[in-house]
Write a structure and sequence with these properties.
α9 (183-192) packs parallel to α11. By secondary structure, this protein is of the alpha/beta class. The strands form two sheets. Strands 1, 2, 3, 4, 5, 6, 7, 8 and 9 form a nine-stranded mixed beta sheet that branches. It has helices at residues 14-31, 50-60, 75-85, 104-114, 139-146, 148-153, 162-169, 174-177, 183-192, 213-221, 224-240, 260-273, 281-292, 296-337; strands spanning 2-10, 37-43, 64-68, 88-93, 98-100, 119-124, 134-138, 158-161, 196-207, 254-255, 258-259.
Length: 351
Amino acid sequence: MKKLCFAIPTWNRAKKLERCVREMARQIIELGRQDEIGIFVSDNRSDDDTPQVLAKLKRQYSFLDYCRLDKHTDARYNFESVCRNAPGEFLWIFGDDDTLLKDGLRLVWHVLNTKEAVIIHAGNGWLKPHSYKIYEGTVLEFANKMGFNQFIGWITAIVIKKEIIRQMMELREWDKYTEASFSHALGILHVATHEPAVVIDFPICEPMEPQTKEDIKRWEQENIGWRYFITVEGLQILFQLGILKEKLNPLFFKYLNYYLWDRFITNMIATELVGKPFPSKGWDLILAMADMIDDIEMAKNIRNCVITSYQLCNTRNILLNQITAINTILKGVIDEANIPIFEPGWAGGQK
């Protein structure tokens, strides 16, 4: 078994996949570690040029292997496929539309062979500034400092011991966790909360391009927006099981430039305004986050904002229903007034 294996779940991104793999292969060869570092791709039954691209890459790189699913399925099962089949003590789960930056593999390989950790966070090149330092701690410590989303949410930034993945996919709660957008993050927190971790705060990998229309379409198909909310239910399970014993630092819920609850409140309001509201349970899940943090004043502000926003949305719906009813009545008056009464023609008398 190899020490490290890039594990890439893919679907219908042949050109990006080829670019992704070629840069990995270039850095593996540059390090001279073809016997210790591999690449494994699981194809979710793509109907573009992915099979031909993989066959071509396989002829060029002996350390590349791949499989193709029998039928196209949910992203969850392609993730599980690549994790089970990738032959490595550690797996670097890599998005097919992301790319490895210069010297990124060299940095990770150095840490992998000099530090004791079950999780290594490989810095996202887009999240600047970087400190250009390497930090050691536990999974929970980093989640509380960086935000669980920034630490283990973006899957391309995660180098993880395969045994941890095996354990989390065997959890009784795994099916529930996979309902959420950050299922892997919940699984990691479940089995490795207090395990050693390393953060390499260098630009190591990044998306190939900003969010595209294709990305948005895929996320809509997979209902990613609502599944973000379901992540909170997974965190509630972790508290119920006693895996998370103490309340969390508010920074645990850091989401890029915002707190996750602010993002959720915005989403609840926005979906109301466009007439496609998220389930009302979303308000309860935001309140649940307030119950999870150790800042009493901040928790109070969250609750006040949620209650106010909910009441305003509810009032808006009542008013819209009243306006709809009034419009219906007025339309009826117009229709009634426009019913013809007289026969056509001049009514001034006989010729």
